[in-house]
């Protein structure tokens, strides 16, 4: 089954062609980082404008790279829930047009499901339900028990900022530009992770809840206090605090729920110290760790097509009038992982 | 032998209404106008048009779309839908400018206006000498344009797409607020619209409201 996956949930215009949920024939991503760099974060109207300008070129590139045509597609999948509303509607509009013009099924995917399923692509025989998934990105940080296809149990989530968002905000305060995660990781390589003793909020609580805003405030206060501080030491200490928080909660939830397989997903999954620390912690506990391929960590169309392949078999196609929502409950159990006022 | 029918799908998501038309040389075959929510309605309306007319998407010969100025989100949805349909079906795409459609069918001197935000307005000034050729749309401060309009005694109508300038032209009997572009106006504008194909089609961008935010907006 050949599926075209489209993702325009944030600042990357992405399209990919995936065969049978595993074989990535193409995975094209047009980044908008330059358009947003001078603002130190993502401006939704600029993201929407850039998606509209680029989407048709990206679709063509994805098909060309996969050496297929629109007529060869069996279905089109798109992220329609979770993200910037102004940006999501562009990808959804393109996907609906393709479904109509080619007379093929339309499959709407929750953006987070794309991240979760990036781990299953090519590994559905070794990764068995139920497993634990830590998804960490600029818009969310949560721990899920993946019970079966499309069914999740929320074990914990952030009460305030997402981990990736804190990376971006600290990087902006240090003048490192956007996106901040890679810049902080690079600087941290030369720094001492014990130079600053930053707080690890909620680390001693026995549940899976996260909180990063206090850590962010502490780091920004440290920057403001000392203009001549050693940036490498600060970045290393800050990164260590984030890693400690994520690892501690993940291991606790794996122990409590007796989940032997742990997956990591989202843009922060690219962070090498996090991957290494998770691997060591899992080895100590005798657990297995799965991380997606690097090109499947950031927002991309392949993960959307991959999730669509599995979920289409469970749920079937969606109607052409599917809605687009910035915040939507996740999975068949309707998990709400943000403040209730966000869901409208 | 009968001539093949040239069938055009026309989309307008520039305002509070979502309009889907299917037209041939003989007139409008199908019209659907719904209020609001183009993200959900637009493709349902297109699908219904195909089933009502018993046609396939491949029976379309051309796509036309209102490219603005107009609602930021509406235009992104409509223009992306039109570009993608044209790309998949390999048919040409015709962009329609909002103010061109607003003045279509008028032969008398007229001002067409639209709020561009931040005290600016888009305007199109059609005089007797400019009919027959396409006058250029421009953007200027509303105060400047409204002063010019008030002193222009030759103009017989002032049409605004939307209703934000009602106070500005209060008492001027020539002023009319227009809530949506009429199907007949959209169709009569088609003859003046260029046909875009290939990469030219893919680079088509909406003309947004608030020109300061849309770096690359095009006028005219």
Structure description:
The complex is a heterodimer of chains A (344) and B (220). With 344 residues, chain A is an alpha/beta fold. Chain A folds into two domains: 2-116 and 296-342, ATPase, nucleotide binding domain (Nucleotidyltransferase, domain 5, 2-Layer Sandwich), CATH 3.30.420; 127-291, Nucleotidyltransferase, domain 5, CATH 3.30.420.40. Helix content of chain A is 41%, strand content 19%. A five-stranded mixed beta sheet of chain A has the order 3-2-1-4-5, sandwiched between helices. In chain A, strands 8-7-6-9-10 form a five-stranded mixed beta sheet. In chain A, a hairpin with a 2-residue loop joins strand 7 (141-148) and strand 8 (151-157). Chain A is globular, with a radius of gyration of 20 Å. Chain A starts with a strand and ends in a 29-residue tail after the last helix. Residues 214-220 of chain B have low confidence and may be disordered. Chain B is 29% helix and 28% strand. In chain B, the strands form two sheets. In chain B, strands 3-2-1-4-5 form a five-stranded mixed beta sheet, sandwiched between helices. Chain B has a five-stranded mixed beta sheet with strand order 8-7-6-9-10. Chain B is of the alpha/beta class and 220 residues long. Chain B is elongated and about 50 Å long. In chain B, helix 1 packs parallel to helix 2. Chain B folds into two domains: 8-98 and 181-202, ATPase, nucleotide binding domain (Nucleotidyltransferase, domain 5, 2-Layer Sandwich), CATH 3.30.420.40; 106-178, MutS, connector domain (Nucleotidyltransferase, domain 5), CATH 3.30.420. The longest helix of chain B is centred in the middle third of the chain and has 18 residues, at 72-89. Chain B has six helices and ten strands. The A-B interface holds A 45-46, 48-49, 51-53, 55-57, 59-60, 70, 85-86, 89-90, 92-94, 96-98, 100-103, 319-324 and B 39-44, 46-47, 50, 56-57, 72-73, 76-85, 87-89, 201-203, 205-206, 208, 213-214, 216.
